[in-house]
Amino acid sequence: MNLYAIVKRGSKSRIGKGFSQGELKEVGVSFTWALNRGIPIDPRRSSQHSENIATLKTHLHKDARARTLALTAVKGIGQKSSEQLKAAGFDTIKALVESDPEQIAEKLGVSAKKASKWIENANNLLSEQA
C-alpha cells in the first residue's frame, strides 16, 4: 500500500512529504512509533487535513487486521502449513504479504509457485477486509 499525505495550498493539492504531527496525534500514533513503522512524516507541516487522517486510520486498521487474522484464514494454508510458516518467522498475514516467494519456498521446502499463490491469496484477503 502506498501511503502518502495530501498537502493543500489554496484550491490546489499535491502529494506531500509526509503526515503532520497533528494528524498523527489525531489517530493516536506517536512520532517515534510512526517512524519505526515506515509512515512518512513531515515535521515541518502543522496543517491537518481530514483526507490524511482518514488515510492513516485506514492504514492502521488494515495493519491491525493483518496482525490479528490467523494464517489459516488464507486460502490454501492449513494448520500444518500455518505452523511451518510461524516456525520460519512468518507469523502474521502481513509478514507473509511482505515476504519474497523464493524465501518462503526455501525455508518451507515448497515450490515458489505455491508460495506466490499464498502471498496472492493473503493480499486478496486483506483487500476484502478493508
Order of helices and strands: EEHHHHHHH
State the end-to-end CA separation: 12 Å
**How much helical structure, as a percent, in the residues?**
40-55%
- Measured by DSSP, the beta-strand proportion falls in 5-15%
Count of spatially separate domains? 2
Describe the global form.
Answer: elongated
Q: Could you describe the largest sheet, including whether it forms a barrel?
A: 2 strands, antiparallel
Low-confidence segments, given as residue ranges, are none
The secondary-structure class comes to mainly alpha
Major sheet: order of its strands?
1-2
Our Rg estimate from Cα atoms comes to 18 Å
Strand tally is 2
* Helix run count: 7
The overall average pLDDT, rounded, is: 87
Layout of strands and helices, then pairs:
Layout: E1 6-9, E2 12-15, H1 21-26, H2 31-36, H3 50-68, H4 79-87, H5 93-97, H6 101-108, H7 112-129
Antiparallel strand pairs: 1-2
Helix pairs in contact: 6-7
Task: Walk me through what this model shows.
Helix 6 crosses helix 7. The protein is about 55% helix and about 5% strand. It contains 7 helices and 2 strands, in the order E-E-H-H-H-H-H-H-H.
Question: Which terms would index this structure?
Answer:
DNA polymerase, domain 1; 2 domains; mainly alpha; elongated; 130 residues; 2 strands
Provide a short characterization of the protein structure.
Helix content is 55%, strand content 6%.
